[in-house]
Each structure stands twice: as structure tokens, then as C-alpha cells.
Design goal:
- By secondary structure, the protein is of the alpha+beta class.
- It has a domain of 240 residues: 3 helical TM bundles of succinate and fumarate reductases (Up-down Bundle).
- Helices cover 48% and strands 8% of the residues.
- The protein is built from 13 helices and six strands.
- It has a six-stranded mixed beta sheet with strand order 1-2-6-5-3-4.
- It is globular and about 85 Å long.
Length: 379
């Protein structure tokens, strides 16, 4: 056996064994016998074609780097190839996912534009809120009363419609008391006007009626699902201010000072908000149809009524008026030129006393878009 190499165990047709010759081209490990005539040229071409076919098939199966030895049929066990051993690696080809469609340029542009608009809107909103907050903080929670001509002067360089309406308003009203425009202006104006009306009435019956209405709100809150732990302390603050009037410990200047004090003033505002929410919840079937976007009443109250700095809506006025049995008239002064007169809306409780019973005169508020102040009628 030449070169000490182990002969191939493949037998040729005449029973003799052949030496395996090493080929340097793509036909490595092709066996031949020295006793047989040399293969014709066309046989070599056929073998080359067959080898190329096998290589192409292997290439199509994503197997790269294979040589001719790997293309040959598998030999019997214990056979050793003459050429250098080749290590085959088997790779698992995961099925490729479907093609991912790239976003269209117009879609990307629209998203970018929408995001930019949202950022600008948020920035403008925050700036507007900061400006309003700065302006509001320069205004007391409740101001001293002033002549209604001060209101007229605000519009001297502005709308003729407003000036004409203020002149009409001045025919029956002579003073205005401003409240800070912080989103709590309705409740603060209502609260101050209510306490002031009780104080200036010098009437014990009016005072006791107001106290009874205030005490009854605790039952209203409890029946609407509020826990006493939530409102008891705040209620005590409000009740104490009412009882201080009864004891003669308050005058108009002291009352103003109390409503200009953040803690006490905001406690009163918050309690009025909770009374309003409790009434709306108790009579939800009556008021839920007026809510927008089919909002549930509990959700509406927690978002728009109980929270400080949220502006009051029409149903808030109705609910608070009925919960405390306090009549209110609101002058709605808009910039519309369709009406020369100021339109008054009256909100009276259902159980308004009649006949000879003494009743509280209506509180009078002035509403301009987004804001409430207190009006005083001529005596």
C-alpha cells in the first residue's frame, strides 16, 4: 500500500483494490484502479457535472464552505478520508418573519407635527395658567366693596356693549365686591355674601335658620357616602364662624379679614364644594342627564366639584342653592350685542318659605365669562 495510507474498502468490478488518490481540484477523493483503463474525458466531465450539481444543491440549502468530500456518498463505517478532516456544522435556520413595512414619510411627518402641536399647546396652557396665577395672587381672596363705576372704568377702552350693560346694571346696583379669579370665585363669593347677609340682617331668626341649614348638611353628606372623618374638622371651622356671629363677635371688617385668610377662607370654600357634590350625588337621577359625555355622577363630582380651583357650572349653583336653602340671583353679563339688558337668572330653593315668614333676601352675584363677583343692590 503506497504511502502507508489505508486503502479504500470500495471494490471495483474485477475484485482488485485501488489506491485512493488525492485530487487538488473540486474532484477530491475520486477513486480509481491502476489495473483499469483511464476514464474517458466525457466520464470526467460527467463526474464534474455531477459534483457541481451536488454543490449547487448544497448551496441552495444555505450550507457554505463544503468541499467535494462532503458531496461524495457516505462510505462504510471506519473509513478514513485521505484529505484533511472537515468539520460539518449544522445550523438551524429560523423561519424569517414577514417583511416589515417601513413607515410612510407622510405618516411620520403627521406624527411629528401632532406631537409638536401637543407640546406647544401644553406650553401655552402652562404659561396662561402661570399668568393667571400671578395676577390672581395680586388680588385678595375677597376685596373691599367699591363703586360700580369702577367696573365701568375697566371697559372705557374696550367694548361698547359692556359699557352699555354696566350702565343698565348701575340703575339698580351701586357696589361691587371682587373675588380672586382662582377657580373658586363662585363658592367664595357665595360664602362671603351668605355670611355677610346673615351678619347685616341683625335678625336672630335668619341666623338660626342658617345654622339649621348648615347642621342639616352633615346628614346630607353622610347619606351621600361621605365619611365623617373627611368633613368633621372642616365643618367645625364653618360652624364656628356662624356661631361667632350669633355671639356678636363679628363685624363686617372682621368678616372680611376672615375671608381674606387662606386657611379659614379655603376651608369654607371646600365645605361648600362638598355640600354641592353631596346634593348632586343624592339626586343624581335628576342631574346626570345634564352631564357631558355620559359621565357618571361620582366621577364628575370627584373631578369637577370637590377639587379646589375648578370653576363652577350651572348645576353647581342649583345644587348649592337647594342644599342650603339660600336664594341667589346672578346677573349674566356677556359681550353679546343681541341684548342691551343684563340677563338675570334666579335660583330659589324648593322649600322657600312663603307668607309672613321672614326669608333671606337673595344673594346677588355678577357673572362675566369665567368669573363671579358680588353685587349690591340699592336700598
Amino acid at each position: 500500500m503506497g504511502g502507508g495510507e489505508e486503502p479504500s474498502r470500495e471494490e471495483i468490478h474485477d475484485g482488485s483494490t485501488t489506491n485512493q488518490e488525492e485530487n487538488t481540484n473540486a474532484q477530491q477523493n475520486v477513486e480509481s484502479s491502476p489495473n483499469l483503463p483511464e476514464k474517458p474525458v466525457n466520464a470526467e466531465e460527467d463526474s464534474s457535472k455531477e459534483t457541481k450539481k451536488i454543490l449547487d444543491e448544497k448551496s441552495n440549502e444555505n450550507t457554505e464552505g463544503t468541499n467535494v468530500e462532503q458531496a461524495q456518498p457516505e462510505i462504510a463505517d471506519n473509513a478514513q478520508a485521505v484529505s484533511a478532516p472537515v468539520t460539518e456544522t449544522t445550523s438551524v435556520v429560523n423561519p424569517s418573519p414577514g417583511p416589515v413595512e417601513a413607515p410612510k414619510p407622510e405618516d411620520t411627518a403627521n406624527k411629528d407635527a401632532a406631537h409638536e402641536d401637543q407640546v406647544k399647546f401644553q406650553q401655552n396652557l402652562e404659561y396662561e395658567i402661570s399668568i393667571k396665577k400671578e395676577e390672581a395672587e395680586r388680588t385678595p381672596l375677597v376685596c373691599i366693596s367699591e363703586d360700580i363705576q369702577k367696573l365701568y372704568q375697566e371697559y372705557e377702552q374696550g367694548s361698547d356693549v359692556y359699557r352699555n350693560k354696566i350702565m343698565k346694571l348701575a340703575e339698580r346696583h351701586n357696589k361691587i365686591r371682587r373675588c380672586r379669579g382662582d377657580g373658586n370665585c363662585f363658592y367664595r363669593a357665595f360664602g362671603f355674601a351668605w355670611f355677610e347677609r346673615i351678619l347685616l340682617s341683625n335678625n336672630l331668626t335668619i341666623l338660626r335658620t342658617a345654622l339649621d341649614s348648615l347642621i342639616a348638611t352633615k346628614t346630607l353628606l353622610k347619606s351621600s357616602g361621605y365619611q365623617p372623618l373627611v368633613y368633621d374638622d372642616i365643618y367645625d371651622v364653618v360652624e364656628e364662624q356662624m356661631k361667632a356671629i350669633e355671639r356678636g363677635e363679628r363685624d363686617d371688617s372682621m368678616l372680611l379679614a376672615i375671608f381674606q385668610t387662606d386657611d379659614i377662607s379655603n376651608h369654607i370654600v371646600w365645605y361648600l364644594r362638598v355640600i354641592t357634590a353631596a346634593y348632586l350625588k343624592k339626586y343624581r337621577q335628576e342631574y346626570e342627564p345634564f352631564l357631558e359625555f355620559e359621565t357618571e355622577m361620582d366621577q364628575y363630582c370627584s373631578k369637577y366639584v370637590e377639587v379646589m380651583d375648578q370653576e363652577a357650572d350651572h348645576i353647581h349653583v342649583i345644587a348649592l342653592t337647594k342644599a342650603l336653602n339660600v336664594p341667589v340671583e346672578i346677573a349674566y353679563m356677556s359681550g353679546s350685542d343681541t341684548m342691551e339688558q343684563v340677563n338675570f337668572h334666579e335660583f330659589y330653593p324648593d322649600n322657600e318659605p312663603t307668607g309672613g315668614n321672614i326669608i333671606l333676601k337673595p344673594l346677588v352675584l355678577l357673572y362675566r365669562p369665567g368669573h363671579y363677583d358680588i353685587l349690591y343692590r340699592k336700598e
